Amino acid sequence: MGDAGKPRQVRDYSATDEAQWIRCRVLAFLDTSYFDDVLTRKPARDGDLQIVAVVDGTTAGLLDARMDGVESTIETVAVHPDHRRCGIGRTLMQRIYPRLQSRGADQVHAWTRDDRAALNWYRALGFEETMRYLHVYASSADEAVGAFGMRTDLRPRGGFFHAWAEHEGALRAEFERVHSCRRFSKHL
User: Fold this and answer.
1) Is 0.85 surpassed by the pTM of this model?
2) In the chain, where does the domain assigned CATH 3.40.630.30 lie?
3) Please, what CATH class does the domain formed by 8-105 belong to?
4) Is 134 exposed, middle or buried, given 0-12, 13-18 or 19+ CB atoms closer than 10 A?
């Protein structure tokens, strides 16, 4: 922390950034509800806008955005834990807005789970929550069998499900790991 005064470069992502992109993303997600969203390769998505923030030669932050007509989605935004609270995330967002607009976007969406810091950050950037559903994980064999039922040819060991938010209470009583997945939206 404390690199607010250090020179920071925000530039387009390059294929040579992949190892640092992965490292930054994994470490940024490690203490959040996305701790298990681990990638060993950067997803290749044609047409994405991809930028990185570099401090002292190291990827300190990253942002990937996808276009879909006049709507856009922040696919990934992450700041390395050693560089948090220095304005890197905000800078990345401010740099991506005009680029999205130049491609015809009039609004941007971002998805996050129930991490208080992330929820507050999106709100502080002028985003409003526009949708919510649940991510439900069957983390044990018993939870998985309860969710799937017993089949003679398969024995589930775990599972990942989407569920409607109105079932949250019952699902939290049944499953150890349930996350509220929220879409935030902002008009550009």
Assistant:
1) yes
2) 8-105
3) alpha beta
4) buried
